[in-house]
């Protein structure tokens, strides 16, 4: 009798628990993903609105007679445009892109357009992937995006090398939106690994800004390349939060009311520890910039705030149930809100009237803080037992993975090479510490004998 009486009680507890979970899930907003991150500064955020306009320029047939330019124009001088490639030029192996020599900002920019829903070749690139299909540099990447990036690099390698050598003080920037963001991120990764193809370009000259990024690399790579790759996400954008495999993106696009909700529920049920320890799971790459412009239970938009971090856990893991999940993915809205955020940052700087010397000191401090945050993220990845993650050397000896680890090695060889490199690094650090302690103790003994003599 007591057992029968207890069944309704257990059912009530179970229903209450489910209701509480569903309520918390519905209350989860995009602001929760970045609420603990720091605020971005005008100096680090400055390139993003400009690069968004460069990406928009790829959609134009003739930049001398533009049809869709945003307020203020694209900011591109047609005479500085080196080349533009269309679908006819790429034969569907990569999205259209432009190469622009930006003398005003000492930058060589390769901008890639986003997904074209009317092009089967773009679908083929995005759907050419299965979990664990392609491994490179000790981590997993999206196979189709990597192949597209390889095609672009092979096609433009000579002209990029010529520009990099001709303008040694210019940075090399890869940028793209949506599908193009994944291609740009893969380009940056491949160029860093094979920098000899572009005249041994220094890693510090290479940058990538992935706007509304696709999840294209495993967590260890996403953190390791955070000093090169930056991702920009507007509020509730669904793409950086859509779990792999990426076929679910199209299910979400064409049946949002049901399947997007089901994806959200399923992702929420998976523990974060299990997701982090899955070496094949792909993530949005690099350092993240999150533009927040709405708050829950508040009508209208607020002045946009940009938060930034190199997170390891809580890296846009869950889809946000929002009617703006797809509109926040549009490059037009991202450019508009990024420019608004930039204007607010600049206005605050003018109010503060920061002197030029102090501004330079702030830039140096910002670079130092980014470096420390980057190293802390690497250490955090090791603490959380992220597969193939390693901590940076205290002496800066093994900051970069050996160049020989690439996609031509098998997954077993890559795993062995990664663990072997970590063991060598640990032994090397221990040897350095012993030698250092020995030198210090010998030096102190010599000083004491001289003093006694």
Automatic annotation (TrEMBL):
Residues 9-75 form the Mono-/di-acylglycerol lipase N-terminal domain. Residues 412-421 have a biased composition (Low complexity). Transmembrane segments: none annotated. Residues 109-244 form the Fungal lipase-type domain. GO terms for biological process: lipid catabolic process. InterPro entries: AB_hydrolase_fold, Fungal_lipase-type, Mono/diacylglycerol_lipase_N. Residues 400-423 are annotated as: Disordered. It comes from the Eukaryota. Residues 1-19 form the signal peptide. GO terms for molecular function: hydrolase activity. This is Calmodulin-binding heat-shock protein. Pfam families: Lipase3_N, Lipase_3. Keywords: Hydrolase, Signal.
